[in-house]
């Protein structure tokens, strides 16, 4: 079985999300999580990319909805 390449799409899409307005919103983060989950497994590469994405979110960008989505992501990736 070949290695999943979803992490590459995840990386590319995250760049697009941040580039459009310099921020990541809750819907974009949800869409990125959907990419990681679509094959039913969030692998190590996807976990690494998701952790890097979450680490780039600035504190002033975090409202309650974003905080909830970030908690969901971190719970799913075991962080």
Defining key terms:
mainly alpha, 0% strand
Structure in words:
The protein has 79 residues and is an all-alpha fold. It has one domain (6-76). It is built from four helices and no strands. The protein has helices at 6-21, 26-37, 44-55, 64-76. The longest helix is centred in the N-terminal third of the chain and has 16 residues, at 6-21. The chain is globular and about 35 Å long. The model has no long low-confidence stretch (mean pLDDT 91).
In short:
With 79 residues, this protein is mostly helical.
Strand content: under 5%
The tally of strands reads 0
Helicity level: 55-70%
Average of per-residue pLDDT values: 91
What's the order of the H and E elements?
A: HHHH
- Overall 3D form: globular
User: Could you say how many structural domains there are in total?
Assistant: 1
User: Termini separation (Å)?
Assistant: 27 Å
DSSP helical segment count: 4
* Main structural class: mainly alpha
Whole-number radius of gyration?
Answer: 12 Å
The profile of the biggest β sheet is: none
State the low-pLDDT regions, or none. none
What secondary-structure arrangement, pairings included, does this model have?
Elements: H1 6-21, H2 26-37, H3 44-55, H4 64-76
